[in-house]
Write a structure and sequence with these properties.
This protein is of the alpha/beta class. It has helices at residues 17-29, 47-54, 71-82, 96-106, 142-145, 190-198, 217-226, 242-246, 263-270, 301-312, 315-332, 335-350, and strands at 3-9, 35-41, 58-61, 88-91, 109-114, 136-139, 154-155, 176-181, 206-211, 233-237, 251-254, 275-278, 293-296. The chain contains 12 helices and 13 strands. The strands form 2 sheets. A 7-stranded parallel beta sheet has the order 3-2-1-4-5-6-7.
Length: 354
């Protein structure tokens, strides 16, 4: 009989899609005779429930995201998990109350997956994380792993598929599109991208496209107007089919002030795009400066504008960096590599199949 692995996630809305896609990829690639995956969303129902179900993952959607402040929700969580027959709980979201109740309800081994090193409402100072009471901790990058203070964290990078050659891109003359994809929150530093674009008045063919949704949407639109970028900036809202968008972009920009591991940049590199990103958090573990793109200091508008200009004016460099990025993803950040790493960890924790 396969071992039952329950993934606990937060939001089932699109902003949680990178974690949900990882769970779906594992469900499709792990040996089904050894492991069967389920998922429990703690922050209500949403489109990601259907996304995971289409990957063969049985899903539960609850409304318990306040932890110990919501004892009624905690009771429903405990009662729902109690009879599942779970061998391993793989937790992506929640604090100590989630970990303790999941273990109490299932008696299963507990694995915590650390996706970030900051608590966004509390600012950019990296937080510390206790591994006490857990059977294993996984971090999305070395930068995040360093936040674990009383135990070891195994680094397992996200993976992406490199499954077809990139489409031909403009060599100059026509518009050149710099794209961003992600949550529209202050942490992502999107306003710095807009301010950098405003310095590039000598690049009239430059266009900015921003794919995502979030609370900063109206502020960013106002900033684009104030910077006289009307007509050069397009807000795409949330995009489900990112491949079609990546195919028409020429450069991917990620000006984040902090990043655990940049899955959006990983997917852009897999699509053959050069990446200009800030040197924050785990970004430098993916983007190789001067090889697959450029790294700039966070919040440094002038450096960001300078690196954008260097790529906008040099199609050969864009192509060379894009190809180097695809090769890096193929060789070091593949979905197969990610799956093998998790399979090995799962085997170590619950792999005795008798």
């Amino acid at each position: 009989m396969p071992r039952e692995v329950l993934h606990i996630l937060g939001s089932a809305q699109p902003e949680g899609s990178s974690i949900a896609r990882m769970v779906g990829a594992l469900a499709q690639r792990l040996d089904p005779s050894r492991y069967r995956l389920r998922a429990c969303f703690l922050a209500g129902n949403g489109p990601l429930v259907a996304t995971l179900r289409s990957s063969g993952v049985e899903c539960i959607a609850l409304n318990w995201w306040k932890g110990a402040r919501d004892p009624a929700g905690a009771w429903k969580f405990w009662r729902r998990l109690r009879g599942l027959g779970v061998d391993l709980v793989h937790i992506h979201f929640g604090g100590r109350s989630v970990r303790r109740l999941a273990h109490a309800a299932t008696g299963a081994k507990t694995l915590f997956h650390l996706h970030s090193r900051v608590l966004e409402p509390k600012g950019l100072t990296p937080a510390t994380f206790s591994a006490r009471g857990l059977d294993s901790v996984v971090a999305v990058s070395r930068a995040v792993a360093h936040c674990v203070v009383d135990g070891d964290a195994r680094v397992i990078y996200a993976g992406a598929e490199v499954n077809r050659p990139p489409l031909p891109r403009a060599a100059g003359g026509s518009k050149l599109v710099v794209g961003f994809a992600g949550r529209l929150v202050a942490l992502k530093g999107i306003d710095y991208l807009l301010r950098a674009a405003a310095l590039l008045k000598d690049c009239p063919n430059l266009r900015i496209e921003i794919a995502g949704s979030g609370p900063e949407r109206s502020n960013l639109a106002a900033s684009a107007d104030r910077l006289e970028l009307t007509g050069r900036v397009k807000f795409l809202d949330w995009v489900d089919d990112m491949q079609s968008v990546l195919d028409r972009w020429d450069i991917f920009a990620l000006p984040s002030l902090e990043e655990g591991f940049p899955v959006a940049a990983l997917e852009a590199m897999a699509a053959g795009l050069p990446v200009i990103a800030s040197s924050a958090g785990g970004i430098a573990e993916l983007v190789v400066d001067a090889e697959t793109g450029w790294l700039v200091p966070p919040a440094d508008v002038e450096s960001l504008a300078s690196r954008l200009r260097s790529l906008l004016c040099n199609p050969a460099l864009r192509k060379r960096m894009g190809e180097a990025g695809r090769n890096r993803v193929r060789n070091q950040f593949s979905l197969d590599s990610m799956t093998q790493s998790f399979a090995q960890l799962y085997d170590e924790l619950v792999g005795d199949h008798g």
